Amino acid sequence: MTGCWKCSTAKVKLFWVVFMQDASSIASSIKCHAEFTPLFSPEKFELPKAFVATAQSVRDALIINWNATYECYDRLNLKQAYYLSMEFLQGRALLNAIGNLELTGAYAEALTKLGHDLESVARHEPDAALGNGGLGRLASCFLDSMATLNYPAWGYGLRYKYGLFKQRITKDGQEEVAEDWLEMGNPWEIVRNDISYPVKFYGKVVSGSDGKKHWIGGEDIMAVAYDLPIPGYKTKSTINLRLWSTKAPAEDLDLSAFNAGGHTKAYEALANAEKICYILYPGDNSLEGKTLRLKQQYTLCSASLQDIIARFERRSGSNIKWEDFPEKVAVQMNDTHPTLCIPELMRILIDLKGLSWKEAWNITQRTTAYTNHTVLPEALEKWSLDLMQKLLPRHVEIIEMIDEELINTIVSEHGREDSDLLEKKLKEMRILENVDLPSTFSNLIAKPKESSAAAISENSGEAGKLINEKDEVDSGDETESKGEPKSTGARKKEEVVAEPPSKMVRMANLCVVGGHAVNGVAEIHSEIVKDEVFNSFYKLWPNKFQNKTNGVTPRRWIRFCNPELSKIITEWTGSEEWVLNTEKLAELRKFADNEDFQTQWRAAKKSNKMKVASLLKEKTGYSVSPDAMFDIQVKRIHEYKRQLLNILGIVYRYKKMKEMSAVERKAKYVPRVCIFGGKAFATYVQAKRIVKFITDVGATVNHDPEIGDLLKVVFVPDYNVSVAELLIPASELSQHISTAGMEASGTSNMKFAMNGCILIGTLDGANVEIRQEVGEDNFFLFGAEAHEIAGLRTERAMGKFVPDPRFEEVKDFVRTGVFGSCNYDELLGSLEGNEGFGRADYFLVGKDFPSYVECQEKVDKAYQEQRRWTNMSIMNTAGSYKFSSDRTIHEYAKDIWNIEPILLP
Questions:
Q1: What's the pLDDT score for residue 266?
Q2: Residues 148, 620, 695, 747: which is the catalytic one?
Q3: pTM for the full model?
């Protein structure tokens, strides 16, 4: 090839612009990839091969815009935002990519010419196993909006080889197997072999002759960049999701040991490096598991920051001004997983770039910001100081210095006169928990002469456990790594063993101190953050705290996943403007009672329900009627999300049906298909019991000839984004029934409302704002409110709770063995007693059960009046206009990142 590379690139781009808009040219491109970039044998052109070749063809178009976006950012030296997250729950990319490129029709026609249909080809794409719940899906929605709105931004994450796990449902409940999403390769990703960074663990810190600190020795690995293109909708902007994969240098393979037969020992260094990116959230019940999780978090932070700094230096050329770093870089920490960005940035600036502590601290605080996803202090991530000291010794030194600065600030703010107040503030706000004050403050607080063994034990029970629930939390959780409520410490005095409290690093406190902005993810959550979780910090730095209510991308979550409804919306609003400007959805309110509009609306819903009926038959073997109400709860299985309340309500419904004649039950109840989906964390025993219980109830109810199609209970295995894209458009009632005050926001509630689904839920998270927007009459509300929860738990502990007879009735019914031989004493026992670990109904299932059952009766009545129900459905879609992630990203860009959109030429 002759000529400069820029001219060649221009020719390729011209080829795409001129020729690749028609089906024949696209078909030729797909055939070309099938032949010349094959991952399959040449004899056949079956669906897996067709998918890969099609994806590679689409990637050609994306690469042109991708490279142009890179070049534009570099040339203009823009301020860029970097979104760091341990999860990105992307889902399938093919339909989203060609939809954003406005080539859906052309690709459908091209594949027809090649003997396949687009939907069948798209179904052969595995979901990227890079996330688990709402935390990761939120991150992916944000990337879509960043690209669509032309903001200079990137995402950073880890390239998990096996994801969380693939869920199988057997007679024993949930079983976990490794996810195989990379088994056939990933046609979207590009490995950047020229972009890799060293990441260090262990070792020691020494002082050099120049007075600088040097981190030496230890275990060294390499983080290699894999890039995924994220195209915007109707724009050339294509941003990047950079994922890190870990490996060790080839020389770390001990050939001598291998040739001597010590194969495992020879490969040990390589295996230790590679396993960092094997699994999302490896179990942390062992020291090895805790260490691996911390390695994952540091790898994400270290590799990403090295990459960000390298880009800053390259763009700066010979004129590097570190004080300008925050003017060019914004780092957003999605939850506390990326907290180590703060000491890592300090380490690089001080140890490697030669800045003073004051300069580095000023830069770090102006660069980083933190999104909080939990509402109660017990769920905020903590790490053992001893573990961190061994794994990251230099970072502990830096954290200790940050903690000392914080102590100084607290003392300056509150003075030394009131020692009790000062002690309270230090205990609450310090980054280092159960760690003695630095020597400069040693006389600040008088130490008690003697500490009782009981007090020490109680303190140890509170602080001595590693709390890492953020891996399983998308919207606020108040539990430990196994997902169970904390022990109340009800041990007899003679059994108490006095142990010193564990020394911990409180990551959320470090985030608040080290960043310039802290945001909650729903209005009620942000108020709790300010009033309770970080109240002392809020009083100290009120301007740091903001609300950024979550949002979801309207492209994936209505335009592409619900084409029939999208077509109706476009027809009645007069254009497709609503896809980019969701405020246009509010115009649907004026058609809510229009008979023709309602008829079309119901027809679209029925069509989507028929698709789900086929899915359920394929996945579970159960046949369901598309004429029944589709009642859906799909989300991570957790006690606070209260799938147990839902299934007990279904059991109560079933029991009452059985007590009636056929005529009576048909008159009282509308037919329902109750659909569950979601994964229980592998070590979360109680959540797995709930899965087993749901499937047992389904096995009984679904085979009861007396009940027939009047009630079905189906658990969809291995719930993921692709399953959600089918279930959500077909949903009619969606359950968001968490214990009030425990779900920070949620995003699935927004997706359901956007697709015309009516919600039943508590006043929790974004439910509050959704109810305001869709109208109180279009939301089924029940349950205790957030401000009541603490008092209700206190009353329970005092023995004042009197259970509703209906609640006792349903538990007794389960214990009769009607749902099989499984012993559910432990599951039901969690709802009984007044105190104790795993008891006392911490999540208030029994308290809310009566109002939940009564609310479900209102649901039945409303569904019997289909004109009214359709009106409610339309009003939910019309009221969801505020819950676009485009709105959320505009707010982040303006209030936290200070970046401007840039249109590519």
A1: 86
A2: 747
A3: 0.92
